[in-house]
């Protein structure tokens, strides 16, 4: 019964979305206030109905209702509660439902918090947002309905892919989707502004918080996914340049570019058309990402469900929205005339450089991702584009970005002087060179990667600190002024420093990782780097829905014990899949990462040990970037911009 | 029960081998390192976007052993890679070659960067030499809205 109610709510939401996509648009065109006013309650209703539908599906998973096809395919009665919940979106149909739930949530938020928007713009934003909902509701109802029943329910389910049964991955999709889908707001604002025929500083100020929020979520989602890959896939890789990873990385890069170019529109009324284009493209890349994952044209580890028919449907959605938006963009080029005047050396130019680097980097990722498809279709070559290509083609842009970031972020608006900015940054440069020299002297191999990465990272972190410090003026009480600086300034410095920290982590890990693979006899100590390990015991353990071979490893350094590690090798009998659970002794400077393998013929066990220097800095840096974004979001100016937030007439409905 | 678990675990995990196994490693560390470098650039054909160095599949193990065999025979790194490509096609190369149409792939980024720089240069020069726009008067619509905002 609850399932049917959920199904019904979904169809109802689809109908509401159709109304919301049409009526306010006509209303805004004809200036009929009654028609425009439909948008707000419709957006809220759409969200509540979708939420009800999602709740019904979650309920089916929680009570293990095996009359539902989706539950049978992706759940099992013995599965732990957390994964029964995360199982709702651990499959195609459920994840698409989560996708539209978030889409409608953003729509509802625009209705709730958009009090200060001009009524026509608001109506158009909500209508465009709803047009996207219509497409995805249709997609779900016609190709991927999660509410299909089985005539003969089986006794138990087929379990969720065990790789997905993990706390890191339980929350990875929701965050990623909040980011992906959040960019739809930027898209809706861009299209609404084009229809409106007006792109100005106020528009940039309205669109920026949405983009920033989406970008923060995307950052967290990507970091969670990367962290999961690191500890779950058994050898500590943190980024694979897999098509699906690239699919989330491209919107991130474009979103980052958009954040920065929107500042130029807001402060200087320049780069308007470029910003609109970025807003369209950012969501376009989100749709491409969805297409790549759902269609399976590019196979990858993540594509847990794919189907050509669904792919074609999403391709149509993509073609419709991108084609429509870009046509509109071309037709309205005249309304996006730049007004601000600025010199070649200025904050504006630095932000243009930032945008070039981020956009071209995203383009490189895009070309590399689709090249196998292009080569097969047009040149009849079956080939692969893997990590070596991306490392070589993508990294140079990031190096240049890292080099100019501290300089650019300190340049004044309108007209700047590199020499003056450079003088402020001398301490940062000295520190960065010192750190790199130290790293070069201490390292055993002669790689340039580690020292260069540390140089860039330190330069960015110290540069961000100098940026803040230089704004405190002269004389006494500089610390007091530092504390009273606007949140946005803090956010900027913190996010830039976070990027620097991620640079340090990535290059440190890639340059100085140590690996040891060997057969280990029980009780026999062996050395890896500065550490001594002993495999004390190997036991068979039974988990709630898996069987585990668990090693007991003592890790010590200079004769004193540091930690006991329990690397596991699990087998999930229902899904018939093995997983590795690496045991990690985490630290700020290094992780010791132990994986247990198969028993060997001589009675020993295959054991792989890695020393991973600075690994945690990668995710620490990402989180710091996200914190920077949140700091910016909470800046007073945006609250002022968002308006006194007149309480909506009908009140905020309970969820 | 414990025995049952062990038996089950062994049966289920039998076909599973994790990436590079201890018994595959060559005695000569320099040669082993070469083998690792080569393996990292070769795709596991039955996997999804994994190199044979990372993959757990049987086929990847066979390829790893093949690479080591060729190295022991005295092949150079290039010869080993060519040997594998001759048999499995260029699909195994994770690092695409620069031959033929692939030149587009490799040059796409740099060309795009150059185009972007040129466009940006002209845009910035235009902005630097432009006359400040004359202040627009507010339209009647905006005047109305402004007074409405100021009333709050």
Automatic annotation (TrEMBL), chain A:
Compartment(s) where it occurs, according to its Swiss-Prot or TrEMBL record: Cell inner membrane
Membrane topology: Multi-pass membrane protein
This protein's UniProt keywords: Cell inner membrane, Cell membrane, Cytochrome c-type biogenesis, Membrane, Transmembrane, Transmembrane helix
Name of the gene: ccl1
Keyword Transmembrane helix in record: yes
GO CC annotation: plasma membrane
A Pfam family: Cytochrom_C_asm
Cytochrome c-type biogenesis protein CcmF C-terminal domain residues: 315-636
Function as written in the Swiss-Prot or TrEMBL entry: Required for the biogenesis of c-type cytochromes. Possible subunit of a heme lyase.
Protein name per the record: Cytochrome c-type biogenesis protein ccl1
GO BP, sorted A to Z: cytochrome complex assembly
Family membership: Belongs to the CcmF/CycK/Ccl1/NrfE/CcsA family.
GO MF term (any one): heme binding
Residue ranges constituting the Cytochrome c assembly protein domain according to the UniProt record: 89-295
Keyword Cell membrane in annotation: yes
InterPro entries: CcmF_C (IPR032523), Cyt_c_assembly (IPR002541), Cyt_c_biogenesis (IPR003567), Cyt_c_biogenesis_CcmF (IPR003568)
Record-annotated membrane-spanning stretches: 6-26, 38-62, 96-113, 125-144, 175-195, 207-229, 249-265, 274-293, 313-331, 352-374, 394-413, 425-442, 448-469, 490-512, 614-633
From TrEMBL, chain B:
Domain CcmH/CycL/Ccl2/NrfF N-terminal: 8-150
Residue ranges crossing the lipid bilayer per the database entry: 103-124
A Pfam family it matches: CcmH
Annotated signal peptide: 1-19
Domain of life: Bacteria
InterPro entries (alphabetical): C-type_cytochrome_biogenesis (IPR051263), CcmH/CycL/Ccl2/NrfF_N (IPR005616), CcmH/CycL/NrfF/Ccl2_sf (IPR038297)
GO molecular function: metal ion binding
Cellular-component GO terms for this entry: plasma membrane
Coiled coil stretches, renumbered: none
Record keywords, A-Z: Heme, Iron, Membrane, Metal-binding, Signal, Transmembrane, Transmembrane helix
Function, as annotated: Possible subunit of a heme lyase.
Family annotation (PANTHER family): CYTOCHROME C-TYPE BIOGENESIS PROTEIN CCMH, CYTOCHROME C-TYPE BIOGENESIS PROTEIN CYCH
Family indicated by similarity: Belongs to the CcmH/CycL/Ccl2/NrfF family.
Name of the protein in its database record: Cytochrome c-type biogenesis protein
Organism: Donghicola eburneus
Encoding gene, per UniProt annotation: ccdA
């Amino acid at each position: 019964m609850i399932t049917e109610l959920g199904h019904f709510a979904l169809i109802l939401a689809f109908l509401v979305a159709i109304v919301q996509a049409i009526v306010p648009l006509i209303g805004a065109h004809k200036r009929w206030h009654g028609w425009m006013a439909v948008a707000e309650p419709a957006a809220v209703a759409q969200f509540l109905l979708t939420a009800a539908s999602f709740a019904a599906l979650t309920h089916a998973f929680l009570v293990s209702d095996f009359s539902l096809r989706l539950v049978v395919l992706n759940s099992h009665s013995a599965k732990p509660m957390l994964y029964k919940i995360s199982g709702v979106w651990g499959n195609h149909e459920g994840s698409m439902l989560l996708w539209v739930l978030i889409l409608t949530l953003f729509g509802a938020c625009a209705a709730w918090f958009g009090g200060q928007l001009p009524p026509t713009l608001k109506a158009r934003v909500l209508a465009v947002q709803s047009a996207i909902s219509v497409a995805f509701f249709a997609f779900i109802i016609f190709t991927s309905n999660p509410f299909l029943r089985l005539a003969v329910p089986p006794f138990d389910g087929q379990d969720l892919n065990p790789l997905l049964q993990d706390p890191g991955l339980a929350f990875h999709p929701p965050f990623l989707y909040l980011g992906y889908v959040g960019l739809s707001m930027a898209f809706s604002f861009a299209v609404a502004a084009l229809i409106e025929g007006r792109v100005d500083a106020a528009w940039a100020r309205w669109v920026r918080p949405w983009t920033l929020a989406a970008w923060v979520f995307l950052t967290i989602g990507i970091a969670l996914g990367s962290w999961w890959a690191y500890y779950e896939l058994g050898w500590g890789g943190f980024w694979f340049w897999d098509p699906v990873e690239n699919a989330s990385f491209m919107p991130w890069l474009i979103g980052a570019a958009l954040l920065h170019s929107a500042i130029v529109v807001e402060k200087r009324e320049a780069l308007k058309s470029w910003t609109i284009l970025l807003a369209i493209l950012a969501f376009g890349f989100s749709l491409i990402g969805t297409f790549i994952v759902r269609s399976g044209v590019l196979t990858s580890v993540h594509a847990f469900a794919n189907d050509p028919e669904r792919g074609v449907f999403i391709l149509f959605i993509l073609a419709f929205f991108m084609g429509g938006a870009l046509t509109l963009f071309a037709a309205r080029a005249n309304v996006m005339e730049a007004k601000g005047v600025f010199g070649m050396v200025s904050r504006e130019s630095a932000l243009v450089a930032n945008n070039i680097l981020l956009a071209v980097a995203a383009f490189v990722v895009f070309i590399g991702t689709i090249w196998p498809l292009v080569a097969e279709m047009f040149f009849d070559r079956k080939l692969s584009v893997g990590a070596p290509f991306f490392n070589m083609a993508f990294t140079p842009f990031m190096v240049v970005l890292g080099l100019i970031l501290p300089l650019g972020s300190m340049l004044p608006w309108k007209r700047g002087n590199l020499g003056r900015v450079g003088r402020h940054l001398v301490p940062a440069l000295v520190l960065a060179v010192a750190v790199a020299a130290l790293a070069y002297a201490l390292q055993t191999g002669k790689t340039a990667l580690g020292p260069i990465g540390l140089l860039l990272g330190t330069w960015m972190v110290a540069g961000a600190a100098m940026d803040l410090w230089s704004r405190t003026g002269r004389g006494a009480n500089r610390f007091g002024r530092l504390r009273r600086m606007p949140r946005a300034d803090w956010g900027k410095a913190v996010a830039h420093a976070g990027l620097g920290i991620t640079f340090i982590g990535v290059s440190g890990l890639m340059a100085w990782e140590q690996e040891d693979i060997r057969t280990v006899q029980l009780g026999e100590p062996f050395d890896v780097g500065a550490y001594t390990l002993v495999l004390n015991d190997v036991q068979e353990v039974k988990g709630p829905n898996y069987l585990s071979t668990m090693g007991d490893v003592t890790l010590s350094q200079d004769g004193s014990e540091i930690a006991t590690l329990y690397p596991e090798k699990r087998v999930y009998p229902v899904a018939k899949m093995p997983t590795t659970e690496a045991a990690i002794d985490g630290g700020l400077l290094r992780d010791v990462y132990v994986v247990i393998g198969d028993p060997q013929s001589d009675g020993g066990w295959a054991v792989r040990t890695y020393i991973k220097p600075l690994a945690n800095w990668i995710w620490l840096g990402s989180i710091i970037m996200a914190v920077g974004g949140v700091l910016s979001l909470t800046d007073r100016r945006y609250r002022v911009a968002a308006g006194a937030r007149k309480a909506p007439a009908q009140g905020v409905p309970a969820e | 029960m414990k025995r049952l678990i062990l038996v089950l675990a062994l049966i289920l995990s039998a076909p599973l081998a994790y990436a590079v196994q201890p018994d595959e490693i060559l005695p000569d560390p320099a040669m082993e390192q070469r083998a690792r470098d080569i393996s990292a650039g070769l795709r596991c054909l039955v996997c999804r976007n994994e190199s044979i160095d990372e993959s757990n599949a049987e086929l990847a193990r066979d390829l790893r052993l093949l690479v080591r065999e060729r190295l022991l025979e005295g092949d150079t790194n290039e010869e080993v890679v060519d040997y594998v490509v001759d048999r499995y096609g260029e699909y195994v190369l994770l690092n695409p070659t620069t031959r033929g149409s692939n030149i587009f792939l490799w040059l796409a980024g740099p060309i795009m960067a150059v185009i972007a720089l040129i466009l940006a240069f002209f845009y910035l020069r235009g902005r630097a030499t432009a006359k400040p726009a004359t202040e627009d008067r507010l339209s009647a619509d905006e005047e109305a809205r402004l007074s409405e905002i100021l009333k709050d």
